[in-house]
Amino acid sequence: MMNDWSEIYNLADGYRQQQQWQKAAIAFQTAIELRPDFFWSYHHLGDALTQLQQWNQASLAYSRAVKLDPSFFWSWHNLGDALTQLQQWNKASLAYSRAVELDPSFFWSWHNLGDALTQLRQWDRAIAAYLQAAQLQPDNQLIYQKIGTAFEERGGLEQSIADYRQIARAQERSSYWQRFLIEPQTLVNIADILATKHQVRAAIALYYLVLEIQPQNAAILAKLAKLLQQQNELAQTIAASEQNLSSQLLNRQGDQPTPQTQTQLVAEQTEIAINHPISPEQLESLCSAVGWSSRPLNKVKQALENSFCYVTAWQINREQKKLIGFTRAVADGAFHAVLLDIIVHPEFQNQGLGKKIVKAAIAQLNHSQIGDITLFASPHVANFYHKLGFVSQPNNLKWMLFSPNPSVKNKHKD
């Protein structure tokens, strides 16, 4: 019987090395029936099922593997990946947590742990995991976007500062933070990059954390003062823009609406539509309003017809519609898409309309299972797209990639 088992296991392993995943999965399952206590049969079965994208069965195989050998890092990490595909975030976070305990040097375990904790809205643990990932791969651009988003979601800046200064004062320190507090320069390096990536809130909170450890650090004080000044100027600019917008709305309506009416005014007068019929003349009229050069109408018609989808925003006034916003997507229909012609009429800018248009386009592409979405943005509007989930690519600020939950290729140890 043992000889039969070993022959079947070797056959399964041969299929695995040849990447014949279906045959490998069947053979490993047979080997398990003959000898249910052999760790490698379960682990490699999980690998084969992962390649077949049979996530539930893969998670069961890896779960059995970690029971037989709880010290093998790859089983825990791959279990986390399978559970992530099943959106079982709590179980996935536990698996990744065990993985980083066994091997704290693997970037993707920390990164994926941060993603799982983000789904659980456990912001501080997610931030700590992302910081660990950033420390391991400081050139990874997406991780700084995720750190910034987590800080935005966790609450106000003042509370974040207070909470993160408390981390340094705590007598019992989390293992996640131990190294950072012993080597605060690592935090400084991450905060410096966050500041350049427009993640000001995150950078400020981390600088304050460093100051709690090194209160006389003049360099940090100077950086912090500069960022706080930028934050204050930004707040003043936003307040002035909101006041100016309010005045424009009041003048346009000719009366004095209540604050509640005022904030709802744009929503009541606009409509977002997917693939709503639009003429080349309407689109060119909108382009002309924002100062774009005119294009041949026959070419505009051809561009609309060849677009994968497009999103339009309309002003509704006495049952008449006026095109006030637009974007379109060009795609391969399976994996990749590019957003083009993102336009908002000048009279309706700074009212959140551009954000709604882009989000609607992303949702439509995601509905078609297209996840790799790019666009081209000038530097002065890059921050607008940062807030929507796009990330500036290294050495090329104009090209930006939308990646809210990037797929991670499983890595398996033979």
Distance between the termini: 26 Å
Main β-sheet description: 7 strands, mixed
What spatial order of strands do you see in the largest sheet?
1-2-3-4-5-7-6
User: Helical proportion?
Assistant: 55-70%
Instruction: Report mean pLDDT, rounded to a whole number.
Output: 81
Q: What is the strand and helix layout of this fold?
A:
Blueprint: H1 2-17, H2 21-34, H3 39-51, H4 55-68, H5 73-85, H6 89-102, H7 107-119, H8 123-136, H9 141-154, H10 157-169, H11 175-182, H12 184-196, H13 200-213, H14 218-253, H15 259-269, E1 270-274, H16 280-289, H17 297-306, E2 309-317, E3 320-331, E4 336-344, H18 353-367, E5 372-376, H19 382-386, E6 390-393, E7 396-402
Parallel strand pairs: 4-5
Antiparallel strand pairs: 1-2, 2-3, 3-4, 5-7, 6-7
Helix pairs in contact: 1-2, 2-3, 3-4, 3-5, 4-5, 5-6, 5-7, 6-7, 7-8, 8-9, 9-13, 10-13, 11-12, 12-13, 13-14, 16-17
Description:
Mean pLDDT is 81; it is low at 253-268, 394-399 and 405-414. The chain is flat and about 75 Å long. The protein has 414 residues and is an alpha+beta fold. Helices cover 63% and strands 12% of the residues. α10 packs parallel to α13 and α13 runs antiparallel to α14. A hairpin with a 2-residue loop joins β2 (309-317) and β3 (320-331). The two termini are 26 Å apart. It has helices spanning 2-17, 21-34, 39-51, 55-68, 73-85, 89-102, 107-119, 123-136, 141-154, 157-169, 175-182, 184-196, 200-213, 218-253, 259-269, 280-289, 297-306, 353-367, 382-386, and strands spanning 270-274, 309-317, 320-331, 336-344, 372-376, 390-393, 396-402.
